[in-house]
Amino acid sequence: MNHDNLSFEDINLLNRTQLSIASNQEGLSDFINLSYNKENFLNQIELKKKSFLDENRKSIVQYFNNRYSKVECSKQLKQNISNLSNSNSFTITTGHQLTLFGGPAFFFNKIIHIISLCESLNKFHPQYNFIPVFWMASEDHDFDEIKNVNIYNNSFEWNTNQEGSVGRFKIDGIDEIKSKFIDLFSNSSSDDVISFINAYQGNSLSEALFNFLQRIFGYKGLLIIDADDKNLKRSFSSLMKNEIENEVIYNNVNKTNNELITKKFKVQAHAREVNLFYLTNNSRQRIKKKSDLYQINDKLLSKDELLDLIESEPHNFSPNVLFRPIFQEYILPNLCYVGGGGELSYWLQLKTSFNQFKIPYPIISQRKIIFYLNKNLQKKIKKINLPIRSFFKDDYVVKKEYLKSINQEVDYKDLDQKFKEFSDSITYMSKEIDSHLKFSIDADLERINKLNEQIKKRIEKSVSIKNEQNIGLIQKVKTYLFPLNIPQERHCHFFQFSNQGKLDILNYLLEEFEPFNHSVLIVYE
Predict the structure, then answer these.
(1) For 387-394, what is the mean pLDDT?
(2) Are strands 299-302 and 154-157 parallel, antiparallel or unpaired?
(3) Where are the alpha helices (DSSP H) in 263-312?
(4) Does the pLDDT value for residue 507 go beyond 70?
(5) Is 301 a member of any domain?
(6) pLDDT, tens digit, for every residue of 110-141?
(7) 258-277 mean pLDDT
(8) Residue 360 contacts by C-beta under 8 Å, 6 or more apart in sequence?
(9) Is the pLDDT of residue 466 over 60?
(10) Whole domain around residue 391: which residue ranges?
(11) Does 14 map to a domain?
């Protein structure tokens, strides 16, 4: 295997806000604290040291000790859990929804990014310990976003009538999908993928994903957290009450949103007066403010009653998309969050909220975007003889570049200019002779122009037919990189890029990954 790097601008997938996060954080100084570079991690450590409570460190260590007490742990994993007790240990975090079998490839790319980042930081700053943490968004209730998995042109869907936080779902009915998934690798020379899929089991979806990720990444010391936990929620209850009493996020985010709009950045999420959900075994209900009361389902509560409820049963409350980052940074000794462009966009809305909660705003980093090219695709690209960056452009642009490269491009620029000059001259001449001629001559010129366009299309069709084989190859390359017009890593499962069931791609990425190289990775089989 080998790889190339492209700039984020080359792939034309990120909007202005996302590009700024990915490669120009200096322009975001009003909305972030420290930009993403290895030197700033030392500054972030000093900020976190001053604010992270000893009791919170003890709480998170106890959580991981309990969580891994019955798990077969690698040496690195045991070391990371042990190190977490020390004040010189900090986490690097990413997270995602509980997508089926991990879902699209970028889910795995996120984890590879934080593992590689921790390994790099441990080399740069050996006086500290940097520990990768994956945050399972187990309390999310949008089942439609996680129920599908796509691999080798197959789409598998898990159907269930369960509702509420998906992490609590029983995984009844998944065995049939597992069997179909495994069948795709039944003739493979390696059983890596099969063993990983077989590890996807447990009493709940959260437990199944935990076991799955532990089987794949446990040897690298990845810690996996499911914050749907009574003790972690208990430690966070004072901030939940603060949010209800002062509407911290609502007030701060609305002001920040106006600033983002003024500077022509995208607003990703809109704050609500209440940024908490109420959990039951089969529901996650939004808490709505109604004048001076708070509505949970059909029940109305006063502010004092809601605060008492948070005090007595904090585990039944769940932060929403804007409050969850506060929860994460409060309970973890975290320095950096690695995520996609969309999710990091709403982190831009939270700086002043973090300030009011007296929690350091973390460093944020765009996760690495990765495209994988198998040998068959590489042959097609070699035959077309265009640089890989060309295939990230619009179809007509790629086609035009190809035809130009073989001296078959039809350029009408000079002809169009001459026709315009001719039309302008005729119009002017007719006006000078008889102003009434203008309307009939304009109509004639319009007919000529339409005929001209028809001739152009016939010529272009002839050129396309003459070069249809390679133009067809261009489309095949585009379809491989963007199946269903979706970026490959957002559609295809990571295991699709295995080598006969062996995950050489995983080992390659873990060895070659450069977390401080702000670029897109193109991996060649």
Answers:
(1) 95
(2) unpaired
(3) 303-312
(4) yes
(5) no
(6) 999 999 999 999 999 999 999 999 999 999 99
(7) 95
(8) 33, 44, 47, 48, 51, 329, 354
(9) no
(10) 375-497
(11) no
pTM of the model: 0.90
pLDDT at 193 over 70: yes
Compute the C-alpha angle 315/132/352, nearest 5°.
60
Beta carbons within 10 angstroms of residue 62's beta carbon: 13
Q: What is the pLDDT of residues 438-456, one digit of tens each?
A: 778 888 888 888 887 787 6
The total of structural domains in the chain comes to: 2
Choose the final residue of a domain: 199, 227, 255.
227
Count other C-beta atoms under 10 Å from residue 231's C-beta: 15
pLDDT of res. 460:
65
CA dist 362 and 339 (Å) reads 12
Whether the CB-CB separation of 138 and 163 falls below 8 Å is answered with no
CB 134 within 8 A of CB 213: yes
- Per the rule left: phi > 0, alpha: psi between -120 and 50, beta: everything else, 366 is beta
Q: Is residue 400 part of a domain?
A: yes
In a domain, 5, yes or no: no
Per residue in 149-170, pLDDT (tens digit) is 999 999 999 999 999 999 999 9
CA distance 36 to 337: 10
What's the 3-state SS for 44-63?
HHHHHHHHCCHHHHHHHHHH
Q: Above 80 in pLDDT, residue 249?
A: yes
Distance of alpha carbon 32 from alpha carbon 30, whole angstroms: 6
Task: In whole angstroms, give the CA distance from residue 449 to residue 456.
Answer: 11
Q: How many residues does the chain have?
A: 525
The alpha carbon of residue 121 and the mean position of all alpha carbons in its chain are separated, in whole angstroms, by 22
Full DSSP string of 346-386: HHTT-HHHHHHHT-PPPEEEEPPEEEEE-HHHHHHHHHHT-
DSSP string, 2-36: EEEEE-HHHHT-S-HHHHHHHH-GGGGTTT-SS-S
